[in-house]
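FAQ

Q: What does a record look like?
A: Structure on top, sequence underneath. For example:
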């Protein structure tokens, strides 16, 4: 049986194909990520049957708005069209592409070909004039232009007015677009700048005091803030600050039995003093926490909190909501495991329980509670062990209230699962940088992170170490290695972090393991933050170089430079407008290196034009060197400084 005519008509009018839209994550299932003020460059393949002239526009708006912003797309080549827009507000956006037949441009193109061939175009001119009479959707200014040229043609019969550039532009705006085709909308998340670039300092609050075995307080943490600010950090990140359970409390070095006075792990959350929305009494009060947040804000530092979705056996939720937790066949509570590791002091909520909706709401309310107390950054512990739909829902719920909230995924797991978390809304992600030490594997990994499509949704946060991970390459305690890893993290990635004690070269490990001996996860530590040999001045120099150079405030525009030394990596990074270009050469072994750094193809934009590099300035020392023969001869002595960082000048 034949299809109805209206169906055939609908198929016939659907002449346009809009394909291969970039940027797009999984065909629009997940949002592309940008920061406010960062251009979104869009391209697509747009075509239709026949020889008619195609026109296209890029449209975008905030998700809650009803009116679209529009900008014409430009034809590039081979049916590829491009355009760019720059979002000015944080939050969720959508964008799409519209394409239609430009009837007047099609007429004009055919008319000019016939005219050039010497053919009779009198009827064609009348057809063009008829198109002018149909135009009605443009501005008053465009309508006046169309009327003026139409009258000139009708009065003189001369076709020249129909070919005027001014008329072409007015008609492009005003003629009906009866066959307009719109692509499916694509989501875009626009974050504040700190989502893309920041230096994190991880602080264990109970270890910020001055006296051995005295529990640190928020007041002690406030005393440390000027030191953290002086090193140039943007974010201070607290490990969990909640009450710590006593049942199965771990002792020092993760022993199963705690001695009297052992503080337990801050990740065993919950006691008679409360759960995830409470503060461990020995840290202070909520007012003390407010004072810490306010002091940090005055120093231009933001506070990040650790959210660990787990409970000690003493957490109020186990008493108030027993249905949220699993029990074993003998009736005992199932504690957390990551075989062969066991966490007897922790139990995990059951996201598959019959009352999962209430559990989801309770966890969302925890984040909203701390948001209400001045926290807009959350590091999520082990998110890969919880359902992906839960995180997608929670992040959207929170960001609907404050689109500036930042979520960091602490997930060291399979690559596709880490990327799936980023797609579902995590603003930043931990990475494998901690274990990438060889030149080839580091460069290969950075090419992955800065390539497509990862660059559009996966924002790396390079932590050099964490309370859980003391990598083998730091266990010798050699200053050059600490400096090398710090410089790599701070320059390769726009966002990086250190764990307190790194600046003091702390490196004592459990033999054969990537774990700290006498870890402060299980005890209170007191340090001399100004002890001899510390790296504070080096950290400060790197962080202030990052602040002064926009090239180092982004991760995507990174290009490795060929260096004839397997133990030196070199790269170039440029700001979006090309006016700030930084090159670096960083040693990966302790021996001195002499290398040639080629800069012949590196350019710096000056007054809108690209120019070759003629000199460089050392970012850490201020020394200037001319660039001769297309590069620099460098001698890197890691015992002094394994990293050489230069601003390129034209």
């Amino acid at each position: 049986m034949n299809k109805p005519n209206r169906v055939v008509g609908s198929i016939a009018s659907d002449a346009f194909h809009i394909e291969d839209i970039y940027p797009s994550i999984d065909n629009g299932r997940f949002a592309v990520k940008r920061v406010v003020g960062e251009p979104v460059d869009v391209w697509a393949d747009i075509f239709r049957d026949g020889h008619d002239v195609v026109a296209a526009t890029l449209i975008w708006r905030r998700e809650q708005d009803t009116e679209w912003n529009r900008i014409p797309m430009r034809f590039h080549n081979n049916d590829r069209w491009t355009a760019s827009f720059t979002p000015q507000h944080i939050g969720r956006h959508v964008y799409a592409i519209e394409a239609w037949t430009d009837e007047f441009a099609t007429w004009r193109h055919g008319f000019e070909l016939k005219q050039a061939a010497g053919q009779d175009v009198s009827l064609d001119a009348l057809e063009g004039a008829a198109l002018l009479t149909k135009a009605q959707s443009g501005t008053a200014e465009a309508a006046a232009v169309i009327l003026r040229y139409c009258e000139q043609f009708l009065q003189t019969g001369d076709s020249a007015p129909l070919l005027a550039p001014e008329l072409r532009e007015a008609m492009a705006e005003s003629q009906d677009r009866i066959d307009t085709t719109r692509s499916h909308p694509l989501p875009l998340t626009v974050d504040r700048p700190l989502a893309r670039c920041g230096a994190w300092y991880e602080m264990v609050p109970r270890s910020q005091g001055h006296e051995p075995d005295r529990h640190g307080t928020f007041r002690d943490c406030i005393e440390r803030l000027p030191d953290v600010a002086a090193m140039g950090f943007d974010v201070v990140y607290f490990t969990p600050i909640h009450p710590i359970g006593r049942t199965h409390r771990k002792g020092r070095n993760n022993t199963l039995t705690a001695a009297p006075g052992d503080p337990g792990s801050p990740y065993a959350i919950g006691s008679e003093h409360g759960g995830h929305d409470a503060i461990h009494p020995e840290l202070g009060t909520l007012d003390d926490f407010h004072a810490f947040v306010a002091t940090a804000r005055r120093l231009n530092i933001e506070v990040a909190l650790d959210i660990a979705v787990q409970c000690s056996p003493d957490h109020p939720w186990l008493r108030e909501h027993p249905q949220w937790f699993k029990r074993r066949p003998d009736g005992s509570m199932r504690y957390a495991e990551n075989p062969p590791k066991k966490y007897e002091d922790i139990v995990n909520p059951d996201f598959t329980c019959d009352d999962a909706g209430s559990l989801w709401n309770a966890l969302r309310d925890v984040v909203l509670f701390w948001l209400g107390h001045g926290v807009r950054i959350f590091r999520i512990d082990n998110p890969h062990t919880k359902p992906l739909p839960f995180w997608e829902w929670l992040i959207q719920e929170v960001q609907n209230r404050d689109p500036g909230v930042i979520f960091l995924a602490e997930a060291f797991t399979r690559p596709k699962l880490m990327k799936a978390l980023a797609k579902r809304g995590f603003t930043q992600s931990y990475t494998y940088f901690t274990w990438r030490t060889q030149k080839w594997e580091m460069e290969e990994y950075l090419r992955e992170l800065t390539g497509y499509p990862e660059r559009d949704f996966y924002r790396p946060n390079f932590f050099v170490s964490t309370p859980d991970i003391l990598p083998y390459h730091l266990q010798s305690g050699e200053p050059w290695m600490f400096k090398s890893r710090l410089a790599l993290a701070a320059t390769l990635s726009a966002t990086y972090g250190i764990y307190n004690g790194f600046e003091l070269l702390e490196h004592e490990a459990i033999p054969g393991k990537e774990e700290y001996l006498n870890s402060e996860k299980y005890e209170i530590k007191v340090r001399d933050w100004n002890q001899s040999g510390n790296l504070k001045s080096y950290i400060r120099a790197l962080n202030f170089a990052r602040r002064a150079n926009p090239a180092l405030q982004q991760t995507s525009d990174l290009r490795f430079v060929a260096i004839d030394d397997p133990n030196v990596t070199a790269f170039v990074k440029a700001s979006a407008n090309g006016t700030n270009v930084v090159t670096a050469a960083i040693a990966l072994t302790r021996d001195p290196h002499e290398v040639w750094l080629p800069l012949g193809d590196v350019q710096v934009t000056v007054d809108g034009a690209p120019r070759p590099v003629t000199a460089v300035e050392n970012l850490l020392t201020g020394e200037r060197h001319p660039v001769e023969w297309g590069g620099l001869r460098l001698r890197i002595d890691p015992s002094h400084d394994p990293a050489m960082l230069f601003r390129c000048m034209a």
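Q: Is there anything notable about this one?
A: The chain has a mean pLDDT of 95.
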